[in-house]
Each structure stands twice: as structure tokens, then as C-alpha cells.
Design brief:
The complex is a heterodimer of chains A (422) and B (306). Chain A is of the alpha/beta class and 422 residues long. Chain A is built from 14 helices and 15 strands. Chain A has an 8-stranded mixed β-sheet with strand order 10-9-8-11-12-15-13-14, sandwiched between helices. A 7-stranded mixed β-sheet of chain A has the order 2-1-7-5-6-4-3. In chain A, helix 2 crosses helix 3 and helix 9 crosses helix 12. The radius of gyration of chain A is 26 Å and the shape is elongated. With 306 residues, chain B is an alpha/beta fold. Chain B has 2 domains: 65 residues, Roll (Vcp-like ATPase, Chain A, domain 2); 172 residues, Rossmann fold (3-Layer(aba) Sandwich), CATH 3.40.50.150. In chain B, 22% of the residues lie in helices and 33% in strands. Chain B contains 8 helices and 17 strands. In chain B, strands 11-10-9-12-13-17-14 form a 7-stranded mixed β-sheet, with helices on both faces. Chain B has a 4-stranded antiparallel β-sheet with strand order 2-1-8-7, with helices on one face. A two-stranded antiparallel sheet of chain B has the order 3-4. Classes of the chains: A alpha/beta (422), B alpha/beta (306). Chains A and B meet through helix 5, helix 6, strand 12, helix 14 and strand 13 of A and strand 8, helix 2, helix 3, helix 8 and strand 14 of B. Strand 13 of chain A pairs antiparallel with strand 14 of chain B. Bound molecules: S-adenosylmethionine. S-adenosylmethionine binds next to helix 3, strand 10 and helix 5 of chain B. Chain A: It is found in: Nucleus. Chain A: Belongs to the TRM6/GCD10 family. Chain A: Its main location: nucleus.
């Protein structure tokens, strides 16, 4: 596997918490109450574990030190003596004899969660009288707060989807991983064909997941339609697709591409599409590089405005033309993950869907999909129209203590249907 | 031959979905002849509730078009792994599309992945794996039941998927996955009564860059043993989930509204019955009885070793 390098998107994992970060040289990252200098991960390998260490003579700054011998990390403390129940424990906040200043001092001196924990425990009047269960709970809670080890992971669709959903489901329109997994299978997407996704804001997750299923060095294409000037693409960039693959995702504005399709004369369009292909890809490359630059160096954006306009414009046109050409041949799936009511979007896009091919629409609300259900059945030629919802539960699995997790989330709704020829 | 990629025209030998209604669909082979039970070659005729269909007549028709039958019409569709899971001949318990979708997702499969699966069973999951990993990925699937392995192998071939899959007869719990599989896989999937026994052999099977493992078990005791085994073997991110899907019946409803305001004013009671009012609404209801459990999915990451 490649080494970690400047410019990479990395996922920093601290126990169950994950955060996406773009590595720059001399960059820092905020993680909980820590501000961490990230330079020490450069050149190391994905999956390596690092210890968060205080930078001497600073209060809040931390650095990372690679852990060579993982066996030195004892994840659980040896806890002896445990009460069989908690009858001697009183609800008392003063059970901890260390002050918060003392704890903070400890944190700044030598951040080792085990050390801190040991001190916390030995300064706790009641720890040894707690049941094993509550001891474990206490350790879990405290070690989470002071846990000083992180692991660097390479972004994957799974890690990104779980991360976004945990941080804020709204970032990905509330699409939980089970719905995402079903979008990928019920659309019947595979390495070939042309696929349309209309996505009104999942931080780039849905187009990235679809392009991942289409694969590298294959012939499948994705037309990614979005409502704004620029599409959201954090997840897409984080996946760092090879250029060959990334280029097969054509990003177009929904209005602009449909206007182009309906209002550009067929003849003119054909001529435009037959233009030198090399030139197109050249422009694409230039544009991609430019975009990347823009993202990386937002703070010092000195690109002449005029040149930027020109590049933008020709890029749109090329992409619209490319997309329209593909649309003319028909598509092999349509996926809609929209904030807007899906019916008019389906009406506009379904004529491109080939017979025997699938439509998948996700919504956080049931009502728009109910309306779409009847519309598809009564007014359009679709069959096997299905409206479904999921129930998903995570489990704590431990010897003699296996049970569903205390909290669960509720998902959304999925409508699937198959297009036929009347 | 019609499971690989997207097809427009029905060719001879294609498997075709004949779709009558949401609960009535069948798979048949677009072939002029079939072999009867007595071993004789006969015309290939398929009986449906709407009347018989001569399968050879489907050759040359377009997928997604309408077919006239004696007592109604049907549509011909290209089969998908989801259709196949619904209508395949069961040789074993199978995994259904809801769990299958999650398994593919947890295994992080894409069109280059090398996947190891055991047992093959009825090949329900295998079809979905193959769709996600072709053209350059490969599925190695193991079952210790000779006939099951053989039937699955022929099915993959008949479906045009032969080049993407290798079926082997092997007891993976006692003999592991074999020398040839060492350092080969990106992903491993287990659907076995005692997955923890096979788990012992999984660590050699992963590429040096590590990979993902997923296991399906109906019972919680199996999950406990499996999670303990995975943790001992150095797996990370061990997670167990349960997932169920329910399908709504979407209905247009009409509800009568009683006009009770009328009672506030003096009235001789004559018009009460004649003035019936209704409201129309759309609603979705879940069936009275739902599947409440299929199995637990345990997934984990095997870290790279350098
Ligand atoms: C429940 S079925 C698998 C179903 C399959 N996942 C599907 O979706 O069609 C379990 C299979 O595992 C096979 N099996 C059980 N123990 C095995 C072992 N030790 N080695 C290999 N295969 C085994 C059985 O023969 C059976 O076909």
C-alpha cells in the first residue's frame, strides 16, 4: 500500500470517532480538545497507530509519535476487586479527589490515558466498590476522553458514509449505510453502461459510491446531475479516484444539461460532440488541476478572474455536450437522492431510462414517494414498483453481555421500479 | 447466458424473467427445445396462469417489452441478482437481498476485488458478488457438499458468469482455503454453522494489504464465538448489526366523514343520512406479519501486515 503523503485525504480514527482530514505540510488538525501537528504521519503507512504527545512548553499543542510495538498498548487496565453490586455507592460527585486543574496538568505533562486513568482510579474513593460492570463503564467513559492513540485510515466509501452519518446525517441527506447499500444493489449498477444520479447534496458521497461500483479501468459512465453551480464533492475527492475513473463521472447542472438537451439543435449538437476528443480531455485535465488548486489554495487565490471564467464556461459546455450525447443513447439506471420532490425529476429523467432498467429514489419522507408510486404505476410505464423502509440495529457483543445498542436511528424510504416499453 | 452486463435483445439460451404481476414472475430459458423427464427432446413450453408460452418465440424480442399470452399479457425482463434471489431453486437456506446489499457494502467490493466465499449454498449471494466485482475481480467460492458445488458451477456457466467465479469442493473448517488462496483476497465472506473454525484460516488468505471480512449467522451464540475469534486473530473494527426491510402496501383510501355540526341547529333529522361526505388520502401500511429476524451480520477489518 502507498505511504501517506502530503495532499492525501486521510481518516483519523480515535477509537470509534473518525474525522476526515486533508494533509498539508506543517498542517494541524483539531481533535477533541487537542490541536495536533500532523507532519509525523507523512511518509508512514496507512493503518499505523500514533500516540498523541504534548509538545513541550506548549499548553494546547500536540504532536504524533508512531507506535512501533502495538502490544505495548494495553487497552484495558487490570482491575482487581470488584463489588458484586452497588449497594455501597452513593450518588456523590465528590468521589473524585483530584481537582480538574490537577487532571489537566496531568494531561499536559504526559498524556497517557492509562496513566491518567490509573491516577483517576486511585484517587476515586468509590471505584473499587463499584460492580465490574460499572467499573468497565467508568473506564470506557474516561478512557474515551483521554484516549491518546489514533490510527490513520485510507478513506473508503464505508468509512466515509459511517463518518458523515455519525457527525450529522443531514450532511448526506440522512442516507444511512443500509440505504446506501441498497441503492447500489437495487439500481443494478455495474462496471458498464451509463448511469444517472441526481443528488442534491450528500457531500459527494452518492456519486462517489456509484463511481466506485462502476470501477477503475472499466467502460461505465456516471452522469452526476446537481442543482447548483458547483457540486458537492468532499467524499468524491477523499476517494482519490484515478484520473481515468474520475473523468467518467460527468458533473452537470440539472437545469443546464436538460436545457442543452432540449434546446440545442440535434445537428449542432452532433457536430459539437464530434470535435477533437483530445482537445476535450486536455481541457478536462486542465480544469481538474485547476479545481484542485482552487480547493487547496483558497486562501491565496490569485488566478485572473477572466481566465477562470473562460475555463469554467468551456468546461460546462464540454460536459453538457458529453452528457447529452450519452443521454441520447439511453441510460442503464437512474438514482435520485433529492431534497426536492422527486416527481418532476423523475418525469424529466425517466425518458432516458432504457427498458428493463431500474429506478431508485431515496427520500427521508414517505409522502412524496407515495405520490410517486401512483404516478409511476398509473401514468408511466414502470412495474415492480416498491416502497420500502429498513430497520437497522447495532449490537454490543461481549461474553454474556450481548445486547442491541441502547440507541438506534431511524432511516428513510426507498422506492424502486423497473422501466418497461409500452 | 444473460446475467453478465446489460442486454437489449433476447438471445438463444438466455434466462428471461417473465413478469406477470408483482407476485407472479418466473424465469425461463429462451430455447426452442427442452429435455423432458423421460429424456426426450420436446418443444420448450412454459405454463403460466395466463396460458402457455413457447419459449423459443422469445428469441429476438427486446428486454422490457410486452408479450401477449392467451389470457393476458406479460413482460420479459433481463434477470438481475435480486430477481434470481427471489426465484432460484433452493438447495439450502439462502441470504436475501437486504442482507446481501449490506454484505457487499461491508466487504467494500468493487470491480477489481478478489473475494473468497464459503459456503456456496444455493449461490444467492454469489450472483450479487459477481455483479459487483466483474470484469476484473474474481470470486472463489467453497462448499463441502459435492453436488451443491456442482449445481452452482453449472448455474454460473449457464448464466454466462463462469469466467468470474471458481467453485471448489472443500471443507474450509477443517482444511482451510488451500495453499493457492494465500495472500490473494481483498474480502472474505462466511455463511457457515461454525464460522469461527474457518476464521482461523482467513488471516493467510488476505493480501498483504489486508482486507474485509463479513459473516452471517442466525444465532447470537454464533456471533459471540465469532467476535471473540476475530478479536483474537487481530481483526479490527468488529461490528455486528441486524437489518430488516419491510415493504409497504401503498393504498388510496376513502374515509367517510360524519357531519355532526348539523346537529347544533334544529332539524327534523331527515337529511342526516343523505349527506355523506368523504375524504380521500394516500397511506402506506405494513403487512400484518413481517419477517422479524434473518441473521446477524458481523464485519471486521484485517489490517495490512508488512
Ligand atoms: C446456508 S448455506 C449458504 C447459502 C448461501 N450464502 C446463499 O446465499 O445461497 C451454507 C452452506 O455451507 C456449506 N458448509 C457447511 N459447512 C461447511 C464447511 N465446513 N466447509 C464448506 N462448506 C460448508 C453447506 O454445505 C451449505 O451449502
Amino acid at each position: 500500500m502507498d505511504n501517506i503523503k502530503v495532499g492525501d485525504y486521510i481518516i483519523v480514527q480515535r477509537q470509534n470517532y473518525t474525522k476526515l482530514h486533508k494533509l498539508r505540510s506543517h498542517g494541524t488538525m483539531a481533535l477533541g480538545s487537542f490541536i495536533i501537528e500532523m507532519d509525523n504521519v507523512i511518509g508512514e503507512k496507512y493503518f499505523d497507530t500514533f500516540q498523541i504527545k504534548n509538545v513541550p512548553n506548549t499548553k494546547k499543542n500536540y504532536t504524533l509519535e508512531k507506535i512501533e510495538d502495538l502490544s505495548s498498548i494495553s487497552t484495558s487496565l487490570n482491575v482487581e476487586q470488584s463489588g458484586s453490586d452497588n449497594r455501597n455507592i452513593e450518588a456523590d460527585d465528590n468521589n473524585q479527589t483530584m481537582s480538574s486543574e490537577e487532571i489537566n496538568k496531568l494531561k499536559d505533562e504526559d498524556l497517557s490515558s492509562n496513566n491518567i486513568l490509573e491516577k483517576l482510579i486511585s484517587n476515586s474513593k468509590t471505584f473499587n466498590t463499584k460492580t465490574e460492570y460499572s467499573q468497565e463503564k467508568y473506564i470506557k467513559k474516561k478512557s474515551k476522553k483521554y484516549f491518546e492513540y489514533i490510527q490513520i485510515r485510507k478513506p473508503s466509501i464505508r468509512l466515509l458514509a459511517q463518518m458523515f452519518y455519525r457527525q450529522d446525517p443531514a450532511k448526506i441527506l440522512g442516507i444511512r449505510i443500509d440505504y446506501l447499500s441498497q441503492i447500489l444493489s437495487y439500481s443494478n449498477i455495474q462496471s458498464e453502461g451509463t448511469h444517472i444520479v441526481y443528488d442534491s447534496g450528500t457531500s459527494g458521497l452518492i456519486p462517489a459510491a456509484l463511481l466506485e461500483s462502476i470501477g477503475a479501468n472499466t467502460c461505465g459512465k456516471l452522469i452526476h446531475m446537481h442543482p447548483g453551480n458547483e457540486c458537492q464533492k468532499v467524499a468524491f475527492l477523499a476517494m482519490e479516484f484515478p484520473e481515468e475513473q474520475a473523468k467518467r463521472c460527468i458533473n452537470v447542472n440539472l437545469y443546464s444539461v436538460l436545457r442543452h438537451y432540449h434546446q440545442t439543435e440535434t445537428k449542432g449538437l452532433k457536430d459539437a460532440c464530434d470535435r477533437d476528443v483530445d482537445k476535450q480531455s486536455e481541457e478536462n485535465v486542465e480544469m481538474k488541476e485547476y479545481e484542485e488548486l482552487e480547493i487547496m489554495e483558497t486562501e491565496n487565490n490569485e488566478q485572473p478572474e477572466a481566465k477562470r471564467r473562460k475555463l469554467d464556461k468551456s468546461n460546462w459546455q464540454v460536459d453538457n455536450e458529453l452528457a447529452c450525447k450519452l443521454l441520447r443513447d439511453g441510460v442503464h439506471s437512474i438514482i435520485i437522492t433529492a431534497k426536492e420532490h422527486p416527481q418532476s425529476i423523475v418525469d424529466a429523467l425517466e425518458p432516458f431510462l432504457l427498458p428493463s432498467r431500474n429506478l431508485v429514489v431515496f427520500s427521508t419522507f414517505k409522502e412524496p414517494l407515495q405520490e410517486l408510486y401512483f404516478h409511476l404505476k398509473n401514468d408511466l410505464s414502470f412495474l415492480a414498483v416498491k416502497l420500502t423502509t429498513n430497520f437497522m440495529r447495532n449490537y454490543q457483543v461481549l461474553p454474556d453481555r450481548t445486547h442491541p445498542e441502547v440507541n438506534m436511528t431511524h432511516g428513510g424510504y426507498l422506492l424502486t421500479a423497473i422501466k418497461v416499453k409500452q | 447466458m444473460s446475467f453478465d452486463g446489460y442486454k437489449t435483445v433476447i438471445k438463444e439460451g438466455d434466462s428471461v424473467i417473465l413478469y406477470l404481476t408483482i407476485n407472479q414472475y418466473y424465469i425461463l430459458e429462451a430455447k426452442n427445445t427442452a429435455v423432458s423427464k423421460k429424456g426426450a427432446t420436446v418443444q420448450n413450453i412454459f405454463q403460466t396462469p395466463y396460458g402457455p408460452i413457447i419459449c423459443g418465440d422469445l428469441i429476438g424480442k427486446l428486454y422490457g417489452t410486452k408479450i401477449q399470452l392467451k389470457k393476458g399479457w406479460a413482460y420479459v425482463l433481463q434477470p438481475t441478482p435480486e430477481f434470481w434471489t427471489e426465484i432460484l431453486p433452493h438447495r439450502t437456506q439462502i441470504i436475501y437481498s437486504t442482507d446481501i446489499s449490506m454484505i457487499l457494502f461491508y466487504l467494500e467490493l468493487k470491480p477489481t476485488s478478489i473475494v473468497v466465499e464459503s459456503g456456496t449454498g444455493s449461490g444467492s449471494l454469489s450472483h450479487a458478488i459477481i455483479r459487483r466485482i466483474k470484469p476484473s475481480g474474481h470470486l472463489y467460492t467453497f462448499d463441502f457438499h459435492e453436488t451443491r458445488a456442482e449445481v452452482a458451477r453449472n448455474e454460473f456457466k449457464d448464466h454466462g458468469l463462469g469466467e468470474y467465479v471458481t467453485v471448489q469442493t472443500r471443507d474450509v473448517c477443517t482444511n482451510g482455503f488451500g495453499k493457492e488462496m494465500e495472500n490473494k483476497a481483498d474480502a472474505i465472506f462466511l455463511d457457515l454453522p461454525q464460522p469461527w473454525l474457518a476464521a482461523n484460516y482467513t488471516t493467510q488468505v488476505f493480501k498483504k494489504s489486508g482486507g474485509r471480512l463479513c459473516s452471517f449467522s442466525p444465532c447470537v451464540e454464533q456471533v459471540q464465538k465469532m467476535c471473540a475469534a476475530l478479536s483474537n486473530l487481530g481483526y479490527q473494527d468488529i461490528q455486528t448489526v441486524e437489518i430488516l426491510q419491510s415493504q409497504f402496501s401503498v393504498q388510496k383510501k376513502k374515509m367517510s366523514v360524519l357531519n355532526l355540526n348539523i346537529l347544533k341547529t334544529q332539524n327534523d333529522g331527515k337529511c342526516e343520512k343523505s349527506e355523506k361526505e368523504y375524504v380521500n388520502f394516500i397511506t402506506s401500511v405494513l403487512p400484518n406479519s413481517l419477517p422479524g429476524h434473518t441473521g446477524y451480520l458481523t464485519s471486521a477489518t484485517f489490517p495490512p501486515c508488512y
